[in-house]
Specification:
alpha/beta; five-stranded mixed sheet
Amino acid sequence: MHHVSHLTFGLTLALLLNTKYTAYLYCVALGLAIVLDHRQLLRSKTFWLNVAIGALGLLPVLGWNLAHDWASIRWQLTHLVTASPGSSATTPLMQWLGNARHAFGYITWPVIVLSAIGLLRVRRPAARLLALAAAMMLAPVLLSPANSPRNLTVGLALLLVLAGQGFTLKARGFRHAFMEAGLALLLLATFAYGVGTLAALNGASGWPHSVLWNSSSVVHEIRRDGIDGRALAAALAPYPAPFFTVDYDLAGRVHYETGRTALSGWGQFAIWGYPDWERGTVLSWDYVPAACITARLRTVFERVDGPETLHIDASAGPRTLLLWEVAGARLSPLERARALDFLTLWEVCR
């Protein structure tokens, strides 16, 4: 039975490695935990059989990438060598610090403090494993120029569990009383920020004027992204599809609101395959310089008309959308997508 359980664990790892790249981070954390706390397993033949079975999950991933010029692996690695939009950093270290600051900007400070407390709770092997897994999950989000802060919750949840363990004992003396008082304040502040977010987004003007009601970390981002879908669909109705959006998130929104084909340079589109389109519309929000996009478009298409400026209603006020009509492609669909990829354009234009 002991050997069967080990083999079952190996099969579980094999399936895990064949699901999503995020799972690899858990495997790295598990490997570090074994080296730190369970080195006796390294002397077990059953353990290495388990490792071999688990490694089988890599074969389909490696086979697909080998047949597709290592497309998905190359895409993941590019996340570590470019900067966040708006960053003026010139060195990788400063770029990574800028990415981390941008990502953490979405999270309220009490949650960050609680997470830091959780990250420090590494005295016991079980807690150390959770902390390692959390750190592995946080690192790529903090380093990535794509900045997908909602994915931080995957690692933060583990850290909050660890932080909570530090406050489970009944107060004994000043130290524990101080810890419990600190936890109460952090939880109260977290609650206040949550209520403040709801109040600010729902226009509850009767609430007391406070930084908690108006400056919760995500309020500005939610308002900025809260565009009027019907206004967007109406504005794009006269223009030819497909729509190629410089901004990754805009493609899905355009497709949802208009029901027409929308593409972007996001790596997933390359995996799905681009249609061969000769005429269409290119869209971008106005934070990438229009002149730079126009210059790039003229190297990709024979005819480029624009940019035109569209003002789309949003929760935080009108947002400016730039639009070009293009025709006569000079490059293959994949080469066009790479030339108009947001991160590529940002590096060229900033």
